[in-house]
Specification:
The structure is a single chain. The chain is α/β, with parallel strands linked by helices. It has helices at about 1-30, 40-50, 50-60, 60-65, 70-80, 100-105, 120-130, 165-175, 200-210, 215-220, and strands at about 90, 110-115, 135-140, 155, 185-190, 230-240, 245-250. A 7-stranded mixed β-sheet has the order 3-2-1-4-5-7-6, with helices on one face. Helix 8 links the parallel strand 4 (about 155) and strand 5 (about 185-190). Helix 2 (about 40-50) packs across helix 3 (about 50-60). The longest helix has 27 residues, at about 1-30. The radius of gyration is 19 Å and the shape is globular. The chain starts with a helix and ends with a strand. About 35% of the residues are buried.
C-alpha cells in the first residue's frame, strides 16, 4: 500500500510539472512577426485603424469619450471591476485613448498585461503608451493566433462589433479557451438599445454606414457565439438605455 501511495504521488507531481511546463511553453511561443491583416479590416476599417494619419488624429481620449457618448469612464470601471491587481490579463485588440495604460496601472507591477493587435500602426501606438509599464507588453499578432494563456482575465473591449459574425464566433471561442477554471472573459461592447432610446436611430444609421458588423450584437447575445457556452457561467448587465453591455463568462 505504501508503494502504491508513493507511486501515485509521483504521478500527480509529474502531471503538475507537465501542466506548468506546457503553460510556460505557450507563454514563450514565438508569434508570427508579420500577421496578415484580415480582408474585412482593410476593406471596412482602413480609414479608422490602418491609415497612419487618421490613427494619429483619432487615438485620443476625447475621441473615445465622444464616440461612446461620455460613457467610456463608466465602461472602463465596469471592466476593471472584474480584474484584481496582480492578475495576468490579456486584451485582444488595442483601443484608442488611455484604456491600455489604465489597464496596466490597474493590474499593477505584480501582474502582467498582454495587448494584441494585428495592425502594425496600432501595435506601435500601443507600445509607446505602455512604455512606462514594464509589466505590460504589446504584441503584433492576430489575436486568433495568440495562444499564451492561461490568463486570469481576458478583457475584450469593443472588439466584437467590428468583426463579421463568423469571426465573432472564432474570437469568442478562442478567448474562452485562454482562461482556466475560475478565469473570466469580460466583453464590453454595444448592445441593442431600448426601443425608446433617443440615440437608437442615429446609432443605427452610423452602424449601417460605418460599422456594418455591429448589428450582429443587436441580433444575438454574445453567449450565442460560443460553441460550448455550458462550460461557463454567464452574467450580463447593460447601461445607458441598453446601448452598451458587459458580459462576463467565468469558466466552471
Amino acid at each position: 500500500m505504501d508503494d502504491f501511495v508513493h507511486s501515485n504521488t509521483i504521478d500527480e507531481t509529474d502531471l503538475s510539472l507537465a501542466i506548468a511546463s506546457t503553460a510556460e511553453t505557450r507563454r514563450n511561443r514565438p508569434v508570427k512577426t508579420q500577421p496578415d491583416i484580415p480582408d474585412y479590416l482593410m476593406d471596412t476599417y482602413y480609414w479608422a485603424y490602418i491609415n497612419p494619419r487618421n490613427v494619429r488624429l483619432l487615438d485620443r481620449e476625447i475621441v473615445v469619450r465622444t464616440i461612446l457618448w461620455q460613457q467610456h469612464n463608466k465602461l472602463q470601471r465596469l471592466a476593471f471591476s472584474e480584474i484584481t491587481p496582480g492578475q495576468r490579463v490579456m486584451q485582444p485588440a488595442s483601443v484608442y485613448g488611455s484604456f491600455g495604460p489604465n489597464l496596466a496601472r490597474h493590474v499593477g507591477p505584480e501582474g502582467h498585461v498582454d495587448i494584441v493587435d494585428v495592425a502594425r500602426v496600432q501595435f506601435d501606438s500601443c507600445t509607446r503608451k505602455l512604455a512606462p509599464f514594464p509589466h505590460a507588453q504589446a504584441h503584433h499578432a492576430n489575436c486568433l493566433e495568440f495562444d499564451r494563456g492561461p490568463y486570469d482575465v481576458v478583457v475584450c473591449y469593443f472588439l466584437l462589433h467590428e468583426v463579421p459574425d463568423e469571426v465573432k464566433n472564432q474570437v469568442v471561442n478562442h478567448l474562452l479557451g485562454q482562461v482556466p477554471a475560475g478565469g473570466k472573459v469580460v466583453f464590453i461592447d454595444y448592445a441593442k438599445p431600448r426601443w425608446w432610446h433617443p440615440l437608437k436611430l442615429i446609432t443605427s444609421i452610423v452602424f449601417d454606414t460605418l460599422e456594418p458588423f455591429a448589428k450582429g450584437l443587436w441580433r444575438r447575445p454574445i453567449r450565442d457565439f460560443a460553441d460550448r457556452p455550458e462550460r461557463f457561467e454567464w452574467r450580463r448587465e447593460t447601461i445607458f438605455g441598453s446601448l452598451f453591455q458587459k458580459v462576463v463568462a467565468t469558466r466552471r
